[in-house]
Amino acid sequence: MSDDDLSAHPIFTKHPYPDAAAAAAAAGRRQLMLLKDADLIVAVGSQLRMASLSSTAPKSYKTLHTPNLQFNIHQIALNPSGKLLAVAGECQVGIVVLPRSGYARLVPETIDCKSLQIGQFHHAAKGSAPIAKIQWHPWGEAGSTLMVMTEDGKLREYDISSDAEEPQQVLSFVPERKSKSFLAEDASEREVASFSLGQGRADWGPLTVYTVMKSGDIYAMCPYMPKNASIPSSYVHSLECFVSAKQEFLAQSEQNGSSSSTRNLSLLYDYQHKYISALIKQLPPGTVFPASSRSVPMHPPTTLKAKPARQGPFLLQPAPRGLAGSDGGDATDIMYVAFGSDEDADADGDEGGETGHLGVVLVASQDGKVDVCLDVEKVEARWELGHAKREIELPMLAVYETIDLGLITTLAGQHTLLQDNYPAFLADPLHDDTVYVPHAFGVHSLHLGPMLQTLSAALKADDEGSTLTSTLQRATGASVTPILSTFSVERRCSNPVVAVVVPNDVYVTYSIFILTSAMRITSIPLNLRSAPPPLKPNLSNVPSSPAKTSAPVASKWITPRDGPPAYVSLLGSTPYTPPECLTRTSSGLPINPRLSLPPSPVKGKDFMLTPDVLRYLGKTVAELSAKMQEVLLAYRASEARVVIQQNEQTRLVQKCAEMEALIGKLRGPQRIQTEERFARVKEEQRALHARLERLLRTLMDKASPELSEYETKWFAELKRMQADVIGSGKYDETSLLTRARMLEREYERLLPGLRALVEKEKARKTPQPSLGVSQAFEFGARSNIEQARISKMEDELVKLASQLEISLPRPPSEREG
Alpha-carbon torsion 429, 435, 440, 441, what sign? Predict the structure, then answer.
């Protein structure tokens, strides 16, 4: 779908009430549009609109009727299953059940949808804290875990499938004020701007929540998992291996001596081991590692009563630099990016996988500053242990660079407009090294690929630190590209960007959709990029140690010639890299930002040529001229490279012709002469060998022509031993060979009988099975009955004998022994 088709779509009709339009342009996080497969969802005021981009019917949209949600919508978020839509206003949060896929064929323009407000006691009451950000947890069971962060530092987790009023868990990133204490702190240090979930494969990253305050302080809390989670089994096993390795390393360190820090670490790792052991027990029986991973329902362990500790503020080393002409501004958003695919991790499996994924933390500020920080020290799980006295060590982030989006230069002194600026981050769904930054004056694109590839290659090749240091000195920064500009130089105002969407569906072209507060849509098609080849670190400028210098392999037949190589290429050893100005448009982004200016308030007003407009036009012409000159120089450099490659190709053809002539000469008459010479040498060698043999025999005959006495006795002893072993004749029964054969036949004859005796002896020694409890009980009961009958019969015999006056001996039961 083209830009013209989208701009004329009725779904982008402005709201009839001016209050809703003013609310959309107000400061704060805005995300009023998203894509569900090929369905476009737009929030206009308190109204939700939905249209299908793949439909061939005339342009139309459906309005979702949600009577329970009567507030201006600022943010919308789609859950992982695509069935629930979370909407947030300034202080309220709600859930909408989206219609099924056949909604576009319905006749009514309004579709009734189930909707409900979330946590009305916490978010809908008077004086509730404003909503900072809403996000669905990717590991929530059935995709029903919604996280709501408010500016007072409370992160509430709601499970829509069980309870929509009370949160399942509450994480507090702002400690309660103590009544008897006084701290001279700024209000921005206690207001949360945004949060982000960590990432990782075999560490505590996925169980970490990062938060940035408006003052720029960064905090983290770990471990955190939803109350009803669905976690991959492979991650649980990997985390167990990670914790076990930490404990083993600490045990080896304690052998050299124990200190308070090692004891505190031992206690911490014991808690971590208990936590992961509780998760392991929740795995289904038979789940082994390594095996195919599957999502397993889990719950946070209840054996650990301590709460996760707030870690921070992070130390930013070195301190981020400020922008020229800026007094600073509040932080607005934070994002954790993990660079590296699963294929990279599989390829790095033999190397430990430490460099397969690089963690990068991005922090945006109101003045257009973006700090790029490397997560070099991974956050680990910690708990609030009041009885354990541990040294407080603040976590650290390595500040790699500070990016200037150029907003201060664009505004040209109108710094008051930055107060309503709220830059945010949006990750590209297809390329994890691309991040889009929408703000009040347009959209910028950050391409982190070259920087992170260089760092990854340096980390893989680094052993002693020299390689990493030299690579960091030569590494380039992130590539910043302005995509859209909404600032009007003439009227000195702007329409803030309220939504940025990048489709991830086969039915929608890979492009970027940008929506402004004036409901003006801009569509820019993007190009799919192939995976770049892995970069190898340039070690030419790094002195290698003697242990790492590989010695040349000595050939058995050919001795290398000293001196320069036989052939030196004109192209050099480094591959050709096209100039950046020629590859800048490979992603599809425009060279100059597109304009989406606010409409003129007065219809039919002529264009006013003001000094600001002239300066803007002069600046634009200068930039275009510089880019044209840059492209011209790059074209000439490319032509020179083509000439060098053509000359190199000519040299290669000539060298190949020389080598073919040499090979033909070696295969021709010279080869026949060489083979004949080899045959003559071989015959001469045989003749020399026979002559040497005859000479050796002659020398032996001259030295000792007859056998000595001891040699004669030795040969006689050998003959006697041969007669004893083999025998004097064919049928000699006294020989050792004949007797051994007879013994073998006798052994084979007796072996079956011996085996039968062994089996019989085993059967005899095998204990007979004893009676069971039930059988013994039955035999005992039967024996008691027979004993009673015998006693009765004895009594009758005694009575009968007394009547007959006959004396009887004592009954057997009364006899002793």
Answer: negative
